[in-house]
Structure formats: structure tokens, C-alpha cells
Amino acid sequence: MAYIMVDVESDGPIPGDYSMISFGAVLVNEALDTTFYGQLKPISENYIPEALAVSGHTREETLQFNDPKKVMSDFAAWLRRNCQDRPIFISDNNGFDWMFVCWYFHHFTGSNPFGFSSQNLGSLYKGLMNDTFKNFKHLRKTRHTHHPVDDARGNAEALLTLKKEYGLKIKW
């Protein structure tokens, strides 16, 4: 199995009414050197300035980003090149990240290479610790910058730590 750590930046809370502005993906392995970065042109006139500001981009900049169909097609091709079997989607907030990636894949390519499920890094950590109040974020090495590749890499580092130091049984 290939675990793909994903992070999404958007200009609002839900896909369709708002837009995924950018996303990053990291193939989880020891090197963490296989990445994907996509910047997507907005699909809606709607946006929340405060949500967009988190991405570090202006609305004017995002209007120059790439066509979402091309970005999602490129991401699907990247997944095919880097995954021997079905990729496993994992993120630190899969409720948010998953809904954007899943919606965009189905809307722009007709299918989702990840299938119909995703994994949540935070929930995995809470289960390993037997404590729903625990947070994994101290395990990141890469600073959380809101650049989605940095954030996905930091989360992938935390997942590697769960394997190495906490005995998580996981294969990639």
C-alpha cells in the first residue's frame, strides 16, 4: 500500500460553493522526497477573504492558477506513477482535506483514485495513545507554514515517528 499524506488550502469551507486553492501530497516513505503540488484556479465567484489569506495568496493570484481539470488529471497520473496499488489517503484533518480532493477528482476526472475512504492522522495518534485529548503535532519536524507540501511533509514525518518510536504496524 502507498500512503499519501495530503494537505489542502481553500478559500472557503466546502467544495463547489468555494474553491480548493492549492494542495500538496507526499508519498510516505523514509525519504519523503516524492511530492506533488497543485495550484488551482477558483471554480466559484465565492470566497472568504480570511480563509483565502491562510494560503498566503491573493484572489488575483489565484485567478492565474492552473485549470482544476488539468491539475487533478496530473495528480491522478502522479499517483499512478508512484503507487503500485491503490493509494491510501491520509491527512491531519481528513474531514476537510478529503472532501475537497474527493469532490474535485469526481467533478473534474470522473473518479477518485483513492476510492471511497480516507485515514485521519490525528485519530490514529489518539488511538495509539489511548487518549482522545492527545495531539500529534509535536511530532512534526518540518515547520507548519500553510504551504501544503510543507504541511503534508510535517504530517508524514509524524506518521514515520509513529512507526519508528511508537510501534505502529504500517507498511509502504
TrEMBL record:
One of its GO terms (molecular function) is nucleic acid binding. It comes from the Bacteria. InterPro entries: RNaseH-like_sf (IPR012337), RNaseH_sf (IPR036397), Rv2179c-like (IPR033390). SUPFAM superfamilies: Ribonuclease H-like. Pfam families: Rv2179c-like (PF16473). Residues 3-159 form the 3'-5' exoribonuclease Rv2179c-like domain. This is 3'-5' exoribonuclease. It comes from Chitinophaga oryzae.
